[in-house]
Amino acid sequence: MNISKELGHELEADIIVCGAQGLKNAEHYFLGSASEAIVLTASCDVLIVRRS
Q1: Residue 42: what are its φ and ψ, rounded to 5°?
Q2: Is residue 52 domain-resident?
Q3: Count of the separate structural domains present in the chain
């Protein structure tokens, strides 16, 4: 089950808002692995917020 895709449809969401903080390696430098997965699979727009 893909949670971001399923919830987007079930809740008829216009946007998913999530945080990003993990910097485990250069590949995920900008988003983090969880945020990247949400962006790639969500059925609606995604807003990613970083700590300042």
Answers
A1: -65, 150
A2: no
A3: 1
